[in-house]
Amino acid sequence: MKPVIALVGRPNVGKSTLFNRLTRSRDALVADLPGLTRDRHYGEGRVGERPFLVIDTGGFEPVAKEGIMHEMAKQTKQAVAEADAVIFLVDGRQGLTPHDKTITDFLRKSGRQVLLVVNKSEGMKYTTVTADFYELGLGDPYVISAAHGDGVHDLVNETLDLVFGARQAEQEEPEEKQESGIKLAIVGRPNVGKSTLVNALLGEERVIAFDMPGTTRDSIEIPFEREGKHYTLIDTAGIRRRGKVFEAIEKFSVVKTLQSISEANVVLLLLDAQQDISEQDAHIAGFILESGRALVVGINKWDGLTSDRRDEIKIDLDRKLSFLSFAKFHFISALKSTGIGPLMKSVNSAYAAAMINLSTPKLTRALEEAVEHQQPRRKGSIRPKMRYAHQGGQNPPIVVIHGNALDAIDDNYKRYLEKHFRETFSLIGTPLRIEFRSGK
Ligand code: GDP
Ligand code: GDP
């Protein structure tokens, strides 16, 4: 599972500047999809080969009893509880404040790994900028400049080393990787019917058998079979464990949802037809899109709706989730067990599309067809020349196009190519990525 790093600190110490720096390398195509809303508090970062999740906790007033500050403190507490390590940012220009001490007390009680990090330290001497902060008793501070990037790379590497060191100590046995069929994650906001759907898929008996206590931080994998096909349900979010021993777990966790998504082959996004599509739904959809996982959308609680309401929700879907048009939508009732068969057929075909193997000759032929039909535009005197394509990855399929001056290809043309490959190879239910490699 990807390690989780939480950024904590007073307002204005530079948390969101650091967050942006850590999560910057995003697929540009994802960035400008119309309608896609992003949750700027959760993101994925990568240093070298090592991916991680990062949470920006916003402002933190640990003492606030009510109001927005109290709400933010609650969110911060959840983030810290879910994190493997905490980067505690302080402001090197301002020096130590009483508020920093309060946060330190809270972090110490949390039992998490804490790295004390002095930000805004560009152009300052280590001893000067850190002197104040030894009083916090968190050891030698790290110094960075989030705005300029100084020290950020090393900081993340150290953080990840810490996390992985701790993890190895925790679990001596190496995880066994066995063939588990299609890895499926069911995600959605609270009360959309995830548990009910899991029950419908697994059957009550199986559910009881697998309802065993584990720690809240584990990812639980539940194998099941349906119509002769093997699946593994990734239940990082603890769908199954709620309401019994684990009542105390927060009902919804973005971090666990993100982890479920990243461990799955296919994500089943569940929506509630009795409610409007909310910002939270759109955020989750955005996470799935960024992950590149295959996707099937289930609109649940379709039973007992008036036809007016059904029309309404269809319009709402078109308007708010148009960026998911590559996926199949199913109207289902988890409670009445209707529509589940076709839904699972789409899961199978989305998986097949995501895992497709495309040979270089086939891809190159499709590329030639696309170019014949429409040439990429010149950029000044430069005409991009695409020569051949090969497949560079699965889940999502990546088409790598080789040629010359490919930097000059614009996003519109890239989208045109994506659509052409998608149609040529009937790729429904999976995102498709196009990458360019120029020879010269
Ligand atoms: P947050 O409230 O903790 O998320 O803080 P922000 O990231 O919004 O930063 C607050 C202010 O500090 C902004 O004006 C930033 O430009 C500035 N800032 C952030 N990082 C640095 C840094 O490394 N050096 C300097 N000089 N300013 C910074
Ligand atoms: P979760 O929080 O996403 O796991 O949601 P639950 O499975 O706990 O369901 C929340 C509520 O919605 C429960 O009261 C369910 O009985 C109800 N529910 C779930 N699926 C359906 C459905 O298909 N139709 C109707 N009418 N209610 C449903």
UniProtKB/TrEMBL annotation:
SMART domains the record matches: AAA
Keywords of this entry: GTP-binding, Nucleotide-binding, Repeat, Ribosome biogenesis
PROSITE patterns: G_ENGA
Domain EngA-type G: start-end pairs: 3-167, 182-355
Keyword Repeat assigned: yes
InterPro entries, alphabetized: AAA+_ATPase (IPR003593), G_ENGA (IPR031166), GTP-bd (IPR006073), GTPase_Der (IPR016484), KH_dom-like (IPR032859), KH_dom-like_a/b (IPR015946), P-loop_NTPase (IPR027417), Small_GTP-bd (IPR005225)
GO molecular function ontology, one term from the record: ribosome binding
BP terms from Gene Ontology: ribosome biogenesis
One Pfam family matching this protein: MMR_HSR1
Binding site for GTP 2: 188-195, 235-239, 300-303
Residues at which GTP 1 binds: 9-16, 56-60, 119-122
Family stated for the protein in its record: Belongs to the TRAFAC class TrmE-Era-EngA-EngB-Septin-like GTPase superfamily. EngA (Der) GTPase family.
Function comment: GTPase that plays an essential role in the late steps of ribosome biogenesis.
Binding partners and assembly: Associates with the 50S ribosomal subunit.
PANTHER family: GTPASE DER
Name of the protein in its database record: GTPase Der
Native organism: Noviherbaspirillum sedimenti
